[in-house]
Amino acid sequence: MLKLGIIGTNWITQQFVEAAEETKSFKLSRVYSRTEAKAKTFADKFKADDVRLSTDLDEFFASEDFEVVYIASPNSLHFEQAKQAVLNGKNVIVEKPSTSNIHEFAELEEIAKAKSVFVLEAARHIQEPIFKKISDFVDRNRADVSGATLSYMKYSSRYDDYLDSQNPNVFSTDFSGGALYDLGVYAVYDAVVLFGQPDAVNYDAEILSSGVDGSGSLTLKYDDFDVNIIVGKTKNSFMPSEIYFGKRTLLFDSAGDITKIQASDEKKHITDIPADKSDNPMDSEAVEFARIINQNDQTTYKQLMKYARIVNHVLEQARMNAGIVFKADKEK
């Protein structure tokens, strides 16, 4: 198994480490946190006495205890931490979006190439078998595609904190927050993987007083159809996502956390499409990323990097279109 270091001790990091160890893809070796107490609490969850702890990033990245680092810090920290990892010869798995803007992405990609290491953006849902069912359906019926509506809206547990003037990271331009750069990434990945790079991007966003988007409607224009993306962190929606094929429709319950797929025929009869769904949605991602690194699979890596490059470009286009400026933009 590949030795794993982690940055971030939140629920998503725990889920990834559980997936990594359950699938025997990675073995947790070192934990970084700003406080030793948090690092120890996280390591203790996995009952691993040989896991080492770090509170200093320079010491963490200089360590030979791990070959791959998983980064799940606030968005604005992804670039500098991933860059430091790459410069220390580490392979990187970084939560999406991997960078705050396309300039950071281009620099990270160039450095990774020079250092001959992998930088993998953790779009875990496109690795799941249930998403691949959707992709296969689209491929078989590509000539009939006539548009899509992708929806991912969930009331954030941190929005109440925001309303209470606590200014959490996810609603701050300092930390590259907002709905688009959180839940919206899933839907943009769906569109890019299924349909490719759009010709034009327009984002009609509900801007909060902090300067980030609380929700919004994103339109991606392709040659013969549009993909409409509805995203939000300030309200709940139960609207399914749909891909249109003229009189027929493919339905799935979420643009991000897909658990059910259905197909409607020309007579509007709806049938379920059987699909596998793991209890841990990161299982497939952990297995595939470990395989890419172990086998030095440059072909798959280049395809994933292409997706990531397009997604990050679309995100920035949409953000600029809506007038959302991050602190990271001003630092360039």
UniProtKB/TrEMBL annotation:
Transmembrane segments: none
InterPro entries: Gfo/Idh/MocA-like_OxRdtase_N, GFO_IDH_MocA-like_dom, NAD(P)-bd_dom_sf
A family per Pfam: GFO_IDH_MocA
Domain GFO/IDH/MocA-like oxidoreductase: 157-224
Superkingdom of origin organism: Bacteria
Domain Gfo/Idh/MocA-like oxidoreductase N-terminal: 3-119
Protein name: Gfo/Idh/MocA family oxidoreductase
Organism: Companilactobacillus mishanensis
Species lineage: Bacteria, Bacillati, Bacillota, Bacilli, Lactobacillales
